[in-house]
Amino acid sequence: GSSEEQSSAVSSVNSWKDFECGTVILKYTGKEEKVEIPEGVIQIGENAFECCTNLESITIPENVKEIKHGAFIGCKNLKKVKLPKNVKIDESAFMDCSSLAEISGEFASLGENAFMDCSSLKSAVITGSVDKIEYSVFYGCTSLENVEISDNIREIGAYAFAKCSSLEEIVLPKNLSVIEYDAFSGCTSLKSIAIPEGVIKIG
Predict the structure, then answer these.
(1) Phi then psi dihedrals of residue 18, to 5 deg
(2) pTM of the predicted model as reported, rounded to 2 decimal places
(3) Which of 76, 71, 108 is nearest to 91 (CA)?
(4) How far apart are CA 97 and CA 18, in angstroms?
(5) Is the CA virtual torsion 53, 55, 57, 60 positive or negative?
(6) Kindly report the CA angle at 142 between 136 and 146, in degrees rounded to 5?
(7) CA pair distance 167, 76, nearest whole angstrom
(8) How far apart are CA 7 and CA 203, in angstroms?
(9) Which helix (H) or strand (E) holds 85?
(10) Which residues contact residue 4 at a Cβ distance below 8 angstroms, ignoring those fewer than 6 apart?
(11) Which of 35, 121, 149, 183 matches a 20 to 30 Å C-alpha distance to 194?
(12) Residue 32: closest CA among 68, 57, 8
């Protein structure tokens, strides 16, 4: 197909088998509950799956390097996401996915508000080259109990874990140097937190 076809909006899963490498998903208008994105796709565009309330499961292949701003915002029934390695998650990408129970991946970056108000999220495992948990990434994840953070993380942004009211403990990475203001405000179950000795700024 031509380059025009490659960047065209996607209307149904059936047409995806014809996609060539280099495809960007601009808009998904299907009604499927389970979606497997084809190998040729390299990026999921801004608001591409916004408020797809039928969507329950999505598999994102290794070729995808970036999930853009608001890509899955408001997918309230999305329970399961399989992420590729070394992916960039932009701002608000999974914000308000209120059925998502766990997230695990090797991230290149985690944008502001990325998983904000994912109120069913119980577990978050963050590995990869990402070195900062940005502003409000897990804000309002009121079910979050288990957090594992890679030692590559050097900075935890403001409100990053604010209002995570089920979080009882968290082990901060040993290379952490900055904890911004209110990073853990409203974490009413958090009993104690050990600050690594390399931290030079809090608040």
Answers:
(1) -90, -5
(2) 0.89
(3) 71
(4) 30
(5) negative
(6) 90
(7) 22
(8) 43
(9) none
(10) none
(11) 121
(12) 57
* Residue 112, amino acid: E
Query: Is the alpha carbon torsion for 11, 13, 19, 23 positive or negative?
Result: positive
What would the mean pLDDT of 16-44 be, rounded to a whole number? 81
Mean predicted confidence (pLDDT) in 33-60:
93
Mean pLDDT of 135-160: 97
Q: Please say whether the beta carbons of 160 and 133 come within 8 A.
A: yes
Tokens of 54: 């039928």
Are the beta carbons of 44 and 66 closer than 8 angstroms? yes
Contact of 141 with 117, CB cutoff 8 Å: yes
Residue 45's closest CA among 63, 64, 25, 21?
25
- pLDDT band for 5, please (50, 70, 90 cuts): very low
- Adjacency order of strands within the sheet including 34-36: 34-36, 57-59, 80-82
Residue 14 has pLDDT above 60, yes or no: no
Task: Please compute Rg for the chain using Cα positions.
Answer: 17
Joined tokens for residue 127: 């590995």
- How far apart CA 33 and CA 183 sit, in angstroms, is 35
Which residue in 175, 174, 198, 172 sits closest to 183, CA to CA?
A: 172
Is residue 175 within 8 Å of 153, Cβ to Cβ?
yes
Angle at 13 between CA 9 and CA 18, to 5 degrees: 75
Percent residues over pLDDT 90 in the chain: 81
